[in-house]
Write a structure and sequence with these properties.
With about 130 residues, the chain is α+β, with helices and mostly antiparallel strands. The protein is built from 2 helices and 5 strands. Strands 1-2-3-4-5 form a 5-stranded mixed β-sheet, with helices on both faces.
Length: about 130
């Protein structure tokens, strides 16, 4: 799959546009890897989950991080302990809201996308915490 970006410079994208572009790339990447996307941009009073997917028996909650510069660190470096805790809270909310009586095996992944040139570098980190 070719993930080359269009002719528009990524540095000219607004934060929301960059996030949407990153999430679209992440969805395509994960689908190509065999995951079944269940939901994108799940919103609740506690916040938002970027992607909820199935990978075999696992229900996977995916955080997508996209960076166009390493000035404030790479996409991988942008995941904090506070964000990890928030993702766990959002996952619990998702499961309770969906009426899961028994929770399936859960996994928390990050898809980090660094767009320093025209070709994004995608790093899928499974079971990050």
């Amino acid at each position: 799959m070719d993930f080359t970006l269009n002719k528009r410079p990524v540095h000219s994208l607004k934060k929301k546009e960059l996030g949407q572009m990153g999430e679209s790339l992440a969805v395509a990447y994960l689908q190509e890897a065999g995951l079944r996307i269940i939901q994108q941009n799940y919103r609740c009073p506690k916040g938002e989950l970027d992607i909820v997917a199935r990978d075999g028996e696992y229900l996977v909650f995916v955080e997508v991080r996209t960076r166009t510069s390493a000035k404030r660190g790479t996409a991988e470096e942008s995941i904090s302990g506070k964000k990890a805790q928030k993702l766990k809270t959002l996952a619990a909310y998702y499961l309770l809201e969906r009426g899961f009586k028994e929770w399936p095996p859960l996994r928390f992944d990050v898809v980090a996308i660094n767009v320093i040139s025209r070709q994004p570098v995608i790093n899928w980190i499974k079971n990050i915490f």
